[in-house]
Amino acid sequence: MHHLSLDQLTSLSTPCYCYDMQLLRLTLKAINQEIRQFPFKVHYAVKANGNAVILKEIAEHGLGADLVSGGELKAALEAGFKPQAIAFSGVGKTDREIEAGIESDIFSFNVESVPELEVINEIALRMGKNAGVVLRVNPDIDAHTHRYITTGTAHDKFGISLEMLPQVVRMAREMRGINMRGLHFHIGSQITTMRPFEMLCDKINQLQDDFEQQGIMFDIINVGGGLGIDYDNPDENPVPDFGSYFNVFKQGLKLRAGQEVHFELGRSIAAQCGSLIARVVFVKENRDKKFVILDAGMNDLLRPALYQANHRVMNLTSSAAAVDTYDVVGPVCESSDVFARDLQLPITSRGDIVAIRSAGAYGESMASTYNMRPLPSSHFFD
Ligand SMILES: *Cc1c(COP(=O)(O)O)cnc(C)c1O
């Protein structure tokens, strides 16, 4: 976004999302470069950003898609993702969504429970089809991320527990409507050290050994997503360290012959290419605090209010040399509608244009019309 001209910026109607398509392409190329020559496939987690232009670009780079709803299935197919490269996740798939997935011949359902497995089998048999299934395992690994985005501990709602797994695998293999393809893991999001992924590899190796002793082999090991990004330094680290990330799995996983590893990356693909652009509506002072009030709020970008997330906030148009300390807030009637507290910015005035960085993932896709505010628009720059 740093190569937007001032003219382009000031003519934008705000609030809006701006996407740097060059950076998105650079990111996708970096991924493809790392997985070349390995039996690795990357599925993009559509919930991170389902904008049609973004989806199309990602599909054109040959990635698959990981979905969590029938709406995302429709969007992914429209954007050009091949059904054979689509996986459908989520703890609460409805019958309609399961039918739509089977109808479209998607690669797999990432199944999270026995009742779900039974319903998919029933529906597939009724449709005279066979549903690809990957069982989501809860590996009981704590990724030490925010408690709202950790998903792989025994206390979370996700996946099948390790104790139940052997029995569920046997069950799935016997169901005639189910094509049991492998195991799935997803331990959390915004994971910024490699240690949790190394622990995941160890757990997978141990499970594979156990199943092998019972004569059971899997075609697919799906290790989920969760690679974090640098929210503090978006310009210094625009592309995540995919080299280190994929190396963990290249070195850590003991693969069997013919096995494929699937990845489901969302944030690490889409976050850095997007910024939320806003205008300063007012600057106001209360006793000992100054507030910058933007025309963008928590309905446009929910992450700070929902999980105390930090995004870099930059004043793009102030030419002041002096700085002051501000709380940067939105206009929504909630005390949590705050983007930054005690932030140093160049002296800021009404009309200045502000960028909230690293907002390409879980930004536009989480936007709502709360307070009857219109959804933010989106713009794409090459
Ligand atoms: C959200 C999600 C992902 C993507 O997570 P990121 O942290 O954005 O990479 C992958 N797999 C599943 C099952 C998910 O729910």
CATH superfamily of the largest domain, by name, is: Alanine racemase
CATH topology of the largest domain: TIM Barrel
| Strand coverage percent | 15-25%
Radius of gyration: 22 Å
How many DSSP-defined strands?
17
Q: Describe the largest sheet.
A: 8 strands, mixed
Number of domains: 2
| DSSP summary: helix tally | 11
Description of the structure:
The chain contains 11 helices and 17 strands. It is of the alpha/beta class and 382 residues long. The protein has 2 domains: 21-270, Alanine racemase (TIM Barrel, Alpha-Beta Barrel), CATH 3.20.20.10; 272-381, Lyase, Ornithine Decarboxylase, Chain A, domain 1, CATH 2.40.37.10. Strands 1, 11, 12, 13, 14, 15, 16 and 17 form an 8-stranded mixed sheet that branches. β14 and β15 form a beta hairpin. The radius of gyration is 22 Å and the shape is elongated. The mean pLDDT is 95. Pyridoxal-5'-phosphate (PLP) is lined by residues 45, 47-48, 66, 89, 186, 189, 224-227, 264-268.
Topology:
Elements: H1 6-10, E1 16-20, H2 21-35, E2 40-45, H3 52-60, E3 64-67, H4 70-79, E4 86-88, H5 95-103, E5 108-111, H6 114-126, E6 131-138, E7 160-161, H7 165-174, E8 178-184, H8 195-213, E9 220-222, H9 242-252, E10 260-265, H10 267-270, E11 274-286, E12 289-294, H11 303-307, E13 313-315, E14 323-329, E15 338-346, E16 353-356, E17 377-381
Parallel strand pairs: 1-17, 2-3, 2-10, 3-4, 4-5, 5-6, 6-7, 6-8, 8-9, 9-10, 12-14
Antiparallel strand pairs: 1-11, 11-12, 11-16, 13-16, 14-15
Helix pairs in contact: 3-4, 5-6, 8-9
The structure holds pyridoxal-5'-phosphate.
